[in-house]
Every structure is written in structure tokens, then in C-alpha cells.
Amino acid sequence: xxxxxxxxxxxxxxxxxxxxxxxxxxxNAMMYVRGHxxxxxxxxxxxxxxxxYRHVLPYFRKSENVQIPELRSSPYHGTEGxxxxxxxxxxSRLSDLFLEAAREKxxxxxxxxxxxxxxxxxxxxxxxRGERWSTNRAFLFPTKxxxxxxxxxxxxxxxxxxxxxxxxxxxxxxERDGASHVATAxxxxxxxxxxxxxxxxxxxxxxxxxxxxRELGIRVRKDLPVGxxxxxxxxxxxxxxxxxxxxxxxxxxxxxxxxxYIDYITNRQGPLSNIGSLEMIxxxxxxxxxSDSAPNMEMLFLQFPPTVNFANSNVNIYxxxxxxxxxxxxxxxxxxxxxxxxxxxxxxxxxxxxIFPNYFxxxxxxxxxxxxxxxxxxLFQTQAFQKVGTKxxxxxxxxxESYEFATDEYWACxxxxxxxxxxxxxCTCRMGRKKDPSSVxxxxxxxxGINNLRVVDASVFPTMVSGHLEAPTLMVAEKSADxxxxxxxxxxxxxx
Length: 496
Known about the structure:
Elements: H1 37-45, H2 53-63, E1 64-66, E2 83-85, H3 93-104, E3 119-122, E4 127-128, E5 131-132, H4 135-140, E6 155-163, E7 168-176, E8 179-184, E9 189-191, H5 194-204, E10 207-208, H6 210-215, E11 222-223, E12 234-236, E13 241-243, H7 251-256, H8 258-267, E14 278-284, E15 297-302, E16 325-333, E17 341-343, E18 354-356, H9 363-379, H10 383-386, E19 391-392, H11 408-417, E20 419-421, E21 453-455, H12 470-488
Parallel strand pairs: 1-2, 9-21, 10-11
Antiparallel strand pairs: 3-14, 4-5, 6-7, 7-8, 12-20, 13-16, 13-19, 14-15, 15-16, 17-18
Helix pairs in contact: 2-12, 9-11
């Protein structure tokens, strides 16, 4: 059984898309988390020349305009890019308790986007003065009057047009306002539809596993492992804790107090200036990490638990927390070994593709996550948290009642049934060296065997990173821009 997830009326997991100007940066949690330098050095070791950390750091810096005073002189951060990076203006008492507990345990406070990721920190966000800063606002607004930029809204690309004889992309077919149109390309077609829709579009265009395409009667243009190797981050939400006093405002307290609205509207301050209910982040190792230096676990601290119904319980697991002072620490296994896939449901672009994330499909992911949960729980035994009467909410989760509470077996059951997607799908068109049979694009992001066709989104990641996906996806976009310019004109300078 796959991990639990929020349900719609069909009983399927929810995998929303950012179908808006700015994509998912308009709907995401605004967390700016690049991952560890070792992640990108691994990309290079896998045969992707030019993708080591020393190569990609300039592109992280290029898009960034860090507004955190103590980081503005850091060699790891940029100050001239269009995207502001800042801390949220609001921090509750819970943040202070978290930092105090970390000091008690000897956990360092770090710039997790700098030299060392392991430790605790306030969350770096894509916000400025309490406002979301999407890629639309940062990158498109300033350039919307450029003569060489045309944006077609309400358009859905249905196929990549391929010249079979020349094995090259010549344009795309798209629908708009009920009519079919063709856009031709003088130089290249660049797909940026994301880790789910890019493979869907390639498959419909005849680029993908030949056996799958033939099953649907699609002419095979190029046999490539499109849609395979899907990796996603899940996060476990079955670990609420209870305090004997208030340490952070509840959702009801925030929404019912008019002062919070006045404070935000006039000053962009107060709890409404926060990114949802997220404040602190903790990176650590547990179980058997894939790297000696990089974390394989992330802990986030929600100020108050969300209301979530799960696939296999049909009840709100937080219903008995009403009226209590609560918070929700969540675990995010950063480097899962489990891989899923994306396949077509039909030859109709309007039919949603089949997404099989395969969370905890590998037993090592379960074992590592159980160790991660136990390490998280150690924080709440510190004097810092005990002075507010912190204790674990020990009501057994539905479907796991047969196990003794807080044993490894219980946590393994709970992880599989009460983990959600954190919406970080990647790697479905992974890059790799020419003779790598598991890759779809080369290190220049060109689709193998098809000329004039590139992919520029999270689907090209060779492996998952120890971070969130907005920052590395922006880096890929910045780097690909130089690649595209250099393919048309030599001598383009790289960022310093």
C-alpha cells in the first residue's frame, strides 16, 4: 500500500500543478533550500561534466538577492539577482525553544545554503517584507515588455513536432480557446513542464520506453526511459506534540484577531507575514546516509497541525487535539532510495498521467526514517522543551493499533500510512553521459537522439538533492540559459 495522502472524491493522491504565471512558486511554501554541495558533486561523478558544486554555485548566486544582513558578504550568496531571499519577519516562542534545545544538544546553528548544511536554522524564504516573491514577480515582470518575449496564456501544448527524417524538433502543437495551433522553432524547443508533464508530453510525442508507447499505439520516435526514475520527498505528519502552555498562536487565534490583519496590511509584520506556519528547520543524519557529509533527514516545525484526512483512516487524526496547545514536527527523508514512475493513461493529453511515487518501496527508506523519528524525539526530552511540559501525543494512529506505541514496528506502520507528498517530484528525464541507459538528456540537457530539443526543469535531476526543489530548479534554468546562448553564439561570459 502506498503512503497515505490527502484524498479527493476519487480516492487518489493529490498531485497539484502550478498552472499559473510563475508556476508552483505561486503556490509553494516559499522555502529556499539548495541542498548539500555533495549532491552536485555526485551529479558530476555520475558523468555530468560541469554540474559539480563549484560549477553550479555561481548560478545559485546569480539569481539571488539575499536580504539577510549576516549573509550578504558570504561567498555562498548573491546580492544582485532578481530573487530576494529573507527570513520571515515573525517568529514565535516556539522558535526560541527550538534553538535553545538545539544548543543543549550541541547542534550548531548554520547557514544551510552555505558551507555546512547540518544543523538548525530559521528558514530562508523567497519573500521580501512579508510578501511572496514568485518567479513571475522576480523574472517575468521586469522583462514583460521585451520584444523577443511572447507569452501565450490559456494554452496547452499537446505534442512536440518532430521531423522524423532529420530526428529533430521543429515546433509544438498547442490548444488555445478551443482551437489547435502550431508554433515552429527556428532554433530549439525547450520543455519546462515539470517532472510530471514533461514526461507526459514526450511520451505522447513518441519519445519514451518503446514497449509502453506501442501498448498505446504511439509511433516510437526514440526509445528512452522517459518517466522512469521518479523520486519525490514525503513528509510524516503523525507525530503531534502537546505543551502545557501556549508557545505559538493557533490558526484560530491568528485568524480571529483583527490586530493581525492590521499589522500585516500596514507593516507586513505579525503571524500573517510567516510562510504558512513554518519557522525552523533542522538537517541531520540518521540510519545509513548516502553521504558522509550531507544530511539524509530534515525536520520542520509547524506551529499548529493542519486538518488532514487520510486514505486508510477516514478520520481526522488530530480531532482529539482540539483545545490543546500543540505543534507538529514533521520528518522529511531527503535521499530516498525508492523510485517510482510516470506513465500515460491514454493518448489524450487531457487524461491525467499515471503517477506511482512508490514511497517507502525500499525497506532501507523505512529503517532510515524510523531512526530519523527517534532522533527527532530526543529534542523534546531537553530541558528547553520540558519546561513547557512537552510530551508526545500518544494516541495510536488508525491502522497501527496492533503495534506497541513508539516501537520501531509502530513507527514503520505509521510512516507508511501517514506520510504525504511534499510536492518535490524529480528525475523523470534524468541527465547522464552518452552511454548511460538510464538517462534521457545529456549534460547539456539535450534529449538524446533528438536534435533541437532540450528539457529544463526538475525532471533532469540525475538524483534527488538534500533540499527543496525551487532553488536547484532555478539554478538549472540559469545554467541552461548560458548553454542555449552558447549554442547560438560563442563567447558568452559565465557568472562570477
